[in-house]
TrEMBL record:
<keyword id="KW-0812">Transmembrane</keyword>
<dbReference type="GO" id="GO:0005886">
    <property type="term" value="C:plasma membrane"/>
</dbReference>
<feature type="transmembrane region" description="Helical">
    <location>
        <begin position="249"/>
        <end position="270"/>
    </location>
</feature>
<keyword id="KW-0472">Membrane</keyword>
<feature type="transmembrane region" description="Helical">
    <location>
        <begin position="147"/>
        <end position="169"/>
    </location>
</feature>
<feature type="transmembrane region" description="Helical">
    <location>
        <begin position="112"/>
        <end position="135"/>
    </location>
</feature>
<dbReference type="GO" id="GO:0055085">
    <property type="term" value="P:transmembrane transport"/>
</dbReference>
<dbReference type="InterPro" id="IPR000515">
    <property type="entry name" value="MetI-like"/>
</dbReference>
<keyword id="KW-1003">Cell membrane</keyword>
<feature type="transmembrane region" description="Helical">
    <location>
        <begin position="199"/>
        <end position="219"/>
    </location>
</feature>
<dbReference type="InterPro" id="IPR035906">
    <property type="entry name" value="MetI-like_sf"/>
</dbReference>
<comment type="similarity">
    <text>Belongs to the binding-protein-dependent transport system permease family.</text>
</comment>
<feature type="transmembrane region" description="Helical">
    <location>
        <begin position="21"/>
        <end position="43"/>
    </location>
</feature>
<keyword id="KW-0813">Transport</keyword>
<keyword id="KW-1133">Transmembrane helix</keyword>
<feature type="transmembrane region" description="Helical">
    <location>
        <begin position="83"/>
        <end position="105"/>
    </location>
</feature>
<protein>
    <submittedName>
        <fullName>Carbohydrate ABC transporter permease</fullName>
    </submittedName>
</protein>
Amino acid sequence: MRGRASGPSPLPEAAGRIWRTLGAAFVLLVFVPPLLLLVSGSFTEPGLPPSPTPRLVPDPVSTTGYVQALELGGLLRASLNSLLVAVVAVPLSVLVASLAGFALARVAARTTAVVVGATLVALMVPATALLVPRFAIFRTLGLTDTLVPLIAPALLGTSPLYVLVYYLAFRALPADLYDACLVEDLSPMRTWWRVALPLVRPVTAALTALTFVLTWSNFLDPLVYVYDRDLFTLPLALRSLSVLDPTNFPVFLAGAVVATVPALIVFLLAQRRFLHHDDDPRGRS
């Protein structure tokens, strides 16, 4: 009897595709309808009484809500402030977290256990518990009512979670790879930048998107540190629109659309890396 050729069964791969399709369909069903209602409501004419039932196509279609949102809420200046914070904080946070994670993956096992344990303890501390000491530090340094307190956490990688994610990613790389770098006499910094970091691009894409969304939507820190209206970020500007009367709800919805679109764009740019996990880990599709 002639033996059958051995090879991977197509059934698990087909099942994986089916589950990914179902997962994507579930995400679409959960998130797309609210987004459609958000966009539809933003094009409703301000001043009209709210419709008793949601409408996907408002009648009449109007862009007055966007004009008033930019004028009343100062969304243009607030968007520029938020963009400035994100452009500085997001790359800085990813670089610091990747450096710390790489160093943690290359030190001795005993040191790694201690640092990982301390990092897990730090993750258990509520962020609100650090508001008072952080505020005291920034006030002493004269940095309140500036954008510096919104960017400064990036110098620490923003969150210990990012360091742990990078640590696990760098640790998963083959040990022979690091040995080859030693043979080639590559310094730790060159090994991190030229060898290790390109191999964890999906992790970098995922953390970049996550950091951008958290930075872009950060409301508590600007509320604590920023008082000058010219320095308001987008969440604070949206808060000023939330006090409008119900007949002007399209103005607030228009502001919400302006705040949502950049986060969606970043997610769409990054999704190819952190959703399609069957891509080549070296970044080749």
